[in-house]
Amino acid sequence: MVKYIRIAINTLQEYFVYRVNFFFGRLQVFIFFVMFFSLWSAVSAGRSSLGVYSIPQIYSYFVVGYIIKAFVFTTRTADIGGDIQNGNFSTLLIKPISTLKYYFSRDIIDKLFNLFFMFWEFILILLLFKPELAMPSLFNFIAFILFLFLSIISFFFYSLVISFIAFWSEDAWSSRFLFGVVFITIFSGQYIPLDFLPPVIGKILDYTPYPYMFYYPLKVWLGQIDQNMIYLRLLNGSLICIFFYFLSQFMWLKGKQKYQSYGN
Amino acid sequence: MSTIQVKNLTRTFQIFDKKPGLGASIKSIFYRPQRTVHAVENVSFEIKQGELVGFIGPNGAGKTTTLKCLSGLLYPSSGNISVLGFKPSDRKYEYLNQIGFVMGQKNQLWWDIPPQETFLLNKAIYNISDTDYQKRLDFFIKTLDIGDIISVQTKKLSLGQRMKCEFVAALLHNPKVLFLDEPTIGLDVIAAQKIRDFVKEINQQFKTTVILTSHNMNDVEELCKRVILIDQGRIKFDGLLSNLTKKFAELKILKFVFENKISKTDIKKFGEIVDGDGYSYTIKVSKEKYLSVASKILTTLPVTDLNIEDTPIEDVIRQVYTDKN
């Protein structure tokens, strides 16, 4: 355990090295919210709802969604593909540490780092814009937290699977871009809520991991899924998580035998 | 029992050759004929505990591939490897805890933070006690003279400084087996010497088994009694470095200094002139004739000094490669 805490500490130290990156990173969050509230206050002028969403629910969808994005979809596992391709993965493999735990330690500190600063930014934004947000019931809040944990773990293993493709293919970045960026952004509901899409697409997406990482946690926050459905979605989300865990383990076992350790 | 046992090790890679040009690049999207390359083929050897063995050969000979198989980074295509009683490709923690690997062209140091942070991480990874850590770090700092650089960001260190810190990171846990892949590549003569002295020291003091690959023959000559010469994936020679010279060197180098100026014509008849300014000459003579040639020159010309040397190891190795071709 001590070794993984130390990995987390070193990762945190890396973040503080680049002060400008750090500052601009935080500024980017702030700019997003300024733009978001300016845009949506114009769009929602004179309206009380948009589809099945009230205006406060729309605000919540994107504001809470931004927090989910920062917390779930930030990952260091994206580096693995490149490291496998250029052989830098070797420096990790010769050490008595678990690759999975190594990257999970880095991811956790990454998320906590984001969460810490986002908390203060969030307070500032609420004070500045005073948006009316939809708040969940206690039950829905607990279910939301459960979904959030599930999303973090599911996405971690999903991202590992994408990175491990690099054991077999030299095109590590294209698969990362397609499955890790395009699919995640569109099919998880980050651009627009999935119920704005034709119902048939929503039904198909139910059989993919994407809505479980972003859309359903938000629907739970907004109270738009009934209790029985929440249990069902949690069960589905858990099965998806387990599936990607075993798939990543299988790919790891096979992939390390294929590892070429390029370069001297 | 040997620390390292390798039997019939073969490692192949699938590669495809792309013809030059954009057209060939486009074609390669649809069609990539693969061919199998034997990086290492039927290699067998044993290394005892505390031995320091040089693995030498031209580029692409299979040296690094062998080291990577020994460390567990690569799975062998066939054959058996045992290091410290373990099968390296299993990558058991008990095994990884006992090996160190310095790769001349790969960093294990964290790039953006000072080396001491990597050292602390390795302390945690290898479960080194505070006392041992401090004792070893003090030893490394003193031996490698790195006291003032371990708190500087890794990326701001020179190559030589970084290499010294790479050694510390690889040795903090006092490994029983150390793999060194081109450890002095790109270093200036002073830094390279410091690294060689350091390797010698840890080999003698801790009885660490060391396998070294290097193109720098100074590394090999100074550190390794035994060498394994590999070419095109096959072992060409395995034995004492001195025997390599005996086996493959066909020439001796004779260096004379004369009292008076001697013409080249007078020297030429004894052997091939390598260098000479009239007052001193260096000539190459076959191993069979060098004694009689030296004797003849001593009796017929005004010699004030004579030196007989073996062919430099670089020339011997070059000759082995040339003979093969």
From TrEMBL, chain A:
InterPro entries, sorted: ABC-2_transporter-like
Keywords: Membrane, Transmembrane, Transmembrane helix
Pfam family, one: ABC2_membrane_6
Membrane-spanning parts: 20-40, 52-72, 112-129, 141-165, 177-194, 230-253
PANTHER family: SLR1174 PROTEIN, SLR1174 PROTEIN-RELATED
The protein's name: ABC-2 type transporter domain-containing protein
Species for this entry: Candidatus Shapirobacteria bacterium CG2_30_35_20
UniProtKB/TrEMBL annotation, chain B:
Organism from which the protein derives: Candidatus Shapirobacteria bacterium CG2_30_35_20
GO molecular function, one term: ATP hydrolysis activity
Pfam family, one: ABC_tran
Keywords from the named record: ATP-binding, Nucleotide-binding, Transport
Ranges of residues in domain ABC transporter: 24-257
Family annotation (InterPro entries): AAA+_ATPase, ABC_transporter-like_ATP-bd, ABC_transporter_ATP-binding, P-loop_NTPase
Gene3D superfamilies hit by this protein: P-loop containing nucleotide triphosphate hydrolases
Top-level taxon of the source organism: Bacteria
Protein name: ABC transporter domain-containing protein
